[in-house]
Amino acid sequence: MKIDLTDTTASKVNKALVRGRRAIGTPAVGMVLTMVIVTDEENAYDSIKAAEEASHEHPSRTLVVIKRHTRNPRERTHPRLDAEVRVGSEAGTGETVVLRTYGEVSEHADSVVLPLLLPDAPVVVWWPTDAPENPAKDPLGALGQRRITDLYTAENPMEVLDARRRSYAPGDTDLAWTRLTLWR
């Protein structure tokens, strides 16, 4: 089931999740974690697919944050949140919420994500591309016990690696390291 919400709030998104679960006959939540994916529109599809595949082994709530930037000067300052709620077969074995933020909401995406986190479940924040220099100090990264980045897409990976080394905090992981497993 897919529910589209335009110019909405986190509270309405939460209600849509409950309504969607009830409509498909699964009112209880049996998720093992909340996965927050911070990406752009271009990489959202592949990121969501990867999260859906992972949800077959680890049922989770996936929150995809896409910070949108409009060219229209009037809309640039207008804060807005659009959401797409997916439950049931639309979301693997969990729930997926695609959050598109506009204007000032993009600068405070953590305040939109926080009410949607599952209680008593670990939070993993993943940046498939363009991770912040210090993931643990990023407002969204601070919500997670685990932060996943990927040097693979960096223009200058050695420079980014050095920055990550300097800002390392327990819970930080880079997928470039896992790709080296066979070599290690």
TrEMBL record:
InterPro entries per UniProt: G6PDH_assembly_OpcA (IPR004555), OpcA_G6PD_N (IPR046801)
Pfam name, any one: OpcA_G6PD_assem
Positions of the Glucose-6-phosphate dehydrogenase assembly protein OpcA N-terminal domain: 51-165
Classification via PANTHER family: OXPP CYCLE PROTEIN OPCA-RELATED
UniProt name for this protein: Oxppcycle protein OpcA
Source organism of the structure: Streptomyces griseoflavus Tu4000
